[in-house]
Design brief:
six-stranded parallel sheet; Glycosyltransferase; golgi apparatus; alpha/beta; binds 2-acetamido-2-deoxy-beta-D-glucopyranose; globular
């Protein structure tokens, strides 16, 4: 349990982020009380102005997957003993906080209905099976649409701020920034007083392009930029200091997103960081940070072969496929074990020139997705598009949207230590189980698609929903 109590400008701001670990399919809520003597993570432990109120918080906490990773989870159960109590709020926050309290109450109520077979009439949700708690997710999503407001800081100049890459490997970073800057979505507000969260629209990928000196491995210029950026917005506006950045967020798909965010200690420790490189061993904290899917769009487009995968029941001759360089800690193990070893498990370092990467994916039942230099792999989303069951081979990777999605409904995670037994493990998946996973992939695809203009439940909205959940966990008053 972590308790953070802060004070600034005579207004006490308290944030309680605490976690309760519950067994595997996770049911979590966050509960905490302000007290003088809980100094864990306390920035200003001896504030004389602490408000002592019981605070009951909603969902999102760490849970354990079978590979022992921390995950954030949208709660599927709430005990009535944790009913939300009256919220003590201050001035302008009170209306916003009341709205959030209503949202929390509505989600809690919906979460009690655990009927997974529910399919909403208006086709909003296709399949209950892929969600931890479809009712809670649906209610939370609708509450987000109804209420959530994001203020986008106007400070900073092109190209480093207000822009980002919209093609190739870091697409998800740039597309999100563009959508917040220029999109016609309902979430952006120009009135910072009306916002629930504050977006800092800088692009780490563009910092690498414009500020980094190649081959130096020196990220100081990037950290300095972030440090300056936070200094500017926290001097010009009052919002950062109120929560020490806890209701602020950044996004980055670049491998160096996490290290760049170290430019400001509060950004790193307290703000919501939306990151592709969601390595829980490197400071990624699923209670407050958001795992961003890596979506590789060559030239900004989904490869045409992946737009329409083969008919659902058409046969796929190959068991498993991987092709890619020997990057990072896991791939050497995979390549050493399986490269040129077995005609069912096609593992290549480089594909022969006359072979097509996507054809391999479309003809394989399972697509191996090992981490490379960083934990995320664009293969996961490619596999979803190709309806090839992703086999996730990673350590310390917090999977995207795992607070609401049941990844076990559409993917397989294999412990890195079991790579030698990969064939045995995949062969043991029954026909029925395989079809179930494939149906899961069909259902989840919409959550990993980039649209322009954005569409309900697509990846833009899923990212925003992850931020929304983390904001719901925060009480500012
Ligand atoms: C919590 O709320 C439920 C339903 O609104 C109510 O029945 C229950 O008595 C409440 N529990 C507490 C401890 O207030
Ligand atoms: C779950 O929902 C489905 C569809 O709405 C309904 O047919 C079924 O009876 C429900 N099951 C339970 C246990 O409530
Ligand atoms: C926020 O705090 C910093 C550091 O204490 C201070 O320099 C800055 O002026 C404050 N911002 C505002 C708007 O008062
Ligand atoms: C951030 O977290 C690190 C590691 O837990 C700690 O050493 C540091 O003091 C924290 N900084 C702030 C500003 O909270
Ligand atoms: C695929 O085949 C199974 C039986 O093997 C059948 O139940 C199912 O309806 C088929 N799905 C589609 C989409 O054709
Ligand atoms: C994740 O972080 C740990 C700890 O720094 C590191 O050993 C590991 O290599 C990282 N994983 C990847 C794929 O980079």
């Amino acid at each position: 349990m972590v308790m953070v109590t802060m004070k600034s400008y005579g207004v006490s701001v308290s944030i309680v982020l605490s976690a309760v670990f519950v067994a595997s399919i996770v049911i979590v809520f966050i509960f905490g009380c302000f007290s003088d003597n809980n100094g864990i993570g306390s920035f200003y432990a001896n504030s004389e102005e602490e408000i002592k109120i019981p605070v009951v918080e909603l969902m999102t906490t760490a849970a354990r997957t079978h590979i022992g990773e921390a995950r954030a989870v949208l709660s599927s159960e709430f005990s009535s003993k944790f009913n939300s109590t009256a919220i003590v709020t201050k001035k302008e926050n009170s209306k916003l906080e009341q709205g959030l309290a209503s949202a929390r109450a509505a989600i809690r109520k919906a979460a009690l209905n655990r009927n997974k077979s529910i399919i909403y009439k208006n086709n909003d949700l296709l399949s209950g099976q892929i969600y931890r708690n479809p009712n809670a997710f649906y209610r939370s999503y609708v509450e987000m649409e109804r209420r959530f407001k994001v203020y986008v800081y106007e400070e900073g100049e092109l190209p480093l701020v207000h822009d980002g890459p919209c093609k190739d490997i870091y697409t998800s970073e740039g597309r999100f920034i563009h959508e917040m800057e220029q999109g016609n979505n309902r979430f952006r507000t120009r009135n910072p007083e009306a916002a629930h969260v504050y977006f800092m629209p800088f692009s780490v990928t563009w910092m690498v392009k414009y500020l980094y000196h190649p081959n130096t491995y020196n990220v100081t210029p990037l950290k300095d930029f972030v440090s300056d950026y936070v200094r500017i917005i926290s001097t010009k506006h009052s919002f950062w200091n109120k929560t020490q950045g806890a209701d602020h967020f950044m996004i980055s798909c670049h491998d160096w997103g996490p290290v760049t965010s170290q430019g400001n200690a509060f950004l790193y420790n307290t703000s919501i960081r939306v990151l592709c490189n969601a390595n829980s061993s490197e400071g990624f904290n699923p209670k407050k940070d958001v795992s961003l899917p890596e979506i590789h769009l060559y030239g900004g487009k989904v490869p045409s072969k992946l737009l329409s995968p083969p008919p659902f029941n058409s046969s796929r001759p190959r068991l498993a496929f991987f092709a890619g360089g020997v990057h990072g800690p896991i791939r050497p193990i995979l390549l050493q074990q399986w490269k040129n070893r077995d005609s069912d498990i096609r593992v290549y370092e480089y594909l022969p020139k006359d072979q097509d990467y996507y054809n391999f994916m479309l003809q394989s039942r399972f697509c191996l997705c090992p981490s490379g230099y960083e934990v995320a792999s664009p293969r996961i989303v490619e596999a979803i598009y190709a309806e090839c069951i992703p086999v996730i081979l990673s350590d310390h990777y917090v999977l995207p949207f795992s607070d609401v999605l049941r990844w076990e409904a559409f993917s397989i995670q294999v412990d890195v230590s079991k790579i030698p037994r990969l064939k045995e493990i995949l062969m043991a998946v029954s026909k029925d189980e395989y079809l179930r996973l494939k149906e899961g992939l069909r259902a989840v695809r919409r959550h990993f698609v980039l649209n322009k203009p954005v569409q309900r439940f697509d990846v833009f909205h899923m990212i925003l929903h992850s931020v929304w959940l983390r904001r719901l966990n925060l009480r500012v008053g």
